[in-house]
């Protein structure tokens, strides 16, 4: 990938080096993933500096969620994620999965490079959209202008996108030239994948692996709930030296069960309080475990996490684990309508030869000038 030389690159270099703590934190986070991503790029004969792209997209935070709902280290939008087969359901979001999202991101970047034949334009399309870049190129061609990245008219975010990547590439390649302190990243795999065949609580999996819960979640960030459903997530990532340890501890496990949660499918539309009562949970615990905000109802067919009775041995099915969704709708509260005396009531009164201030007003249960509330039937 050719280097970009511009004032914007110098500007971004200065921005980064004046924030040494920020650079150190995100580089430290990248230690878990960088070796794997570089290996995948090399296997596909793609530029290895693309491994720095998550620095720009998410600061290498696998839980990053933008205001536009882009998620994960590669910041996939929900629609784009689905186009690249990244599952998004009640139990997991593969846009945050390290392996799945990296596969999808590299597939997408290769596609964009195939469309534009230039890595800088491919990166612009990754940020701005392939349609936007394509239209900008056509516009320049018609005007007799250049069609390189630096020639196109584009939004400010996209204009800074490649310069940011180039700045990070320069800093990482020669940190001493920028007085940058970077953590040492070993030239070996950080994690290994481990197959799981039974549903298992996240906390128990971390305990059996002898890994701090935070580190476990950093390697397995796609999980939406406190249980791993083996039918939908058949492997987990663990630090290299802990993978064998996990398997040994799992084989020696003598507890009553691995998973304390199961999935219950709502038979009809329910309020959270009603659903919690049906399954014997407190409403607060039920809302918390299923991430249900206030003033929402649960639609029929929704998949919800509930305590797993000790007598149930069967794990969650593949269909539910892969496709279960939680669908919520705003709670409908009956409105109170107010009927006020007006022209209609005066017209009725005048047809009967009576004035509005007649005995009807005197004997009305409501005082003159007061509104009478009427409850409307809930639709």
Care to give the gist of this entry?
This protein has helices at residues 7-17, 20-30, 34-43, 53-58, 78-83, 98-116, 119-128, 130-142, 156-173, 202-209, 213-219, 240-251, 272-279, 283-290, 318-323, 343-351, 359-363; strands at residues 191-195, 200-201, 227-228, 235-239, 261-265, 296-298, 303-307, 328-330, 336-339, 372-375. The protein is mainly α. It has a two-stranded antiparallel ribbon with strand order 1-4. The protein has a two-stranded antiparallel ribbon with strand order 2-3. It has a two-stranded antiparallel sheet with strand order 5-7.
Features:
single chain, mainly alpha, Lysozyme, disordered C terminus
Structure description:
This protein is mostly helical and 379 residues long. It is built from 17 helices and ten strands. Helix 6 packs across helix 7, helix 7 packs across helix 8 and helix 7 crosses helix 9. The N and C termini lie far apart (61 Å).
Second rung of CATH, namely the architecture of the largest domain:
Orthogonal Bundle
Helix content: 40-55%
* CATH uppermost class of the largest domain: Mainly Alpha
Strand content: 5-15%
SSE string, helices as H and strands as E: HHHHHHHHHEEHHEEHEHHEEHEEHHE
Report the sheet with the most strands, covering strand number, pairing sense and barrel closure.
2 strands, antiparallel
Question: Could you give the distance between the termini?
Answer: 61 Å
- Strand count: 10
The CATH topology of the largest domain is what? Answer: Lysozyme
* Mean pLDDT value: 91
């Amino acid at each position: 990938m050719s280097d970009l030389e511009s004032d914007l690159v110098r500007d971004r270099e200065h921005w980064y080096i004046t924030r040494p703590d920020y650079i150190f934190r995100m580089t430290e986070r990248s230690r878990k993933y960088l070796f794997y991503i570089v290996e995948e790029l090399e296997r596909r004969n793609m530029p290895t500096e693309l491994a720095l792209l998550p620095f720009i997209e998410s600061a290498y935070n696998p839980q990053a969620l933008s205001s536009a709902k882009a998620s994960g280290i590669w910041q996939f939008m929900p629609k784009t994620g689905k186009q690249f087969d990244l599952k998004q359901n009640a139990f997991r979001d593969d846009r945050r999965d390290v392996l799945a999202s990296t596969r999808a991101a590299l597939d997408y970047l290769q596609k964009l490079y195939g469309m534009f034949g230039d890595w800088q334009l491919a990166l612009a399309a990754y940020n701005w959209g392939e349609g936007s870049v394509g239209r900008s190129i056509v516009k320049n061609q018609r005007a007799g202008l250049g069609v390189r990245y630096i020639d196109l008219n584009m939004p400010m975010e996209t204009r800074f996108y490649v310069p940011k990547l180039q700045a990070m590439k320069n800093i990482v390649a020669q940190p001493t030239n920028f007085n940058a302190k970077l953590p040492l990243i070993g030239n070996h795999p950080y994690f290994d994948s481990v197959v799981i065949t039974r549903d298992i609580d996240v906390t128990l999996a971390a305990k059996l692996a002898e890994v701090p819960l935070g580190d476990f979640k950093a390697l397995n960030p796609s999980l939406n709930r406190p249980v791993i459903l083996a039918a939908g997530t058949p492997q987990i990532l663990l630090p290299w030296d802990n993978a064998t340890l996990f398997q040994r501890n799992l084989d020696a496990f003598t507890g009553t069960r691995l998973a304390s949660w199961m999935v219950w499918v709502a038979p009809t539309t329910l309020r959270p309080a009603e659903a919690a009562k049906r399954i014997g949970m407190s409403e607060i615990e039920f809302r918390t475990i299923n991430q249900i905000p206030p003033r929402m109802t649960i639609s029929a067919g929704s998949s919800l996490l509930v305590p797993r009775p000790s007598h149930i041995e069967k794990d969650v099915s593949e269909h539910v684990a892969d496709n279960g969704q939680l669908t919520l709708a705003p709670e409908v509260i009956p409105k109170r309508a107010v009927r006020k005396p007006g022209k209609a009531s005066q017209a009725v009164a005048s047809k009967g030869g009576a004035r509005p201030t007649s005995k009807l007003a005197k004997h009305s249960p409501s005082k003159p000038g007061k509104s009478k509330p009427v409850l409307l039937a809930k639709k």
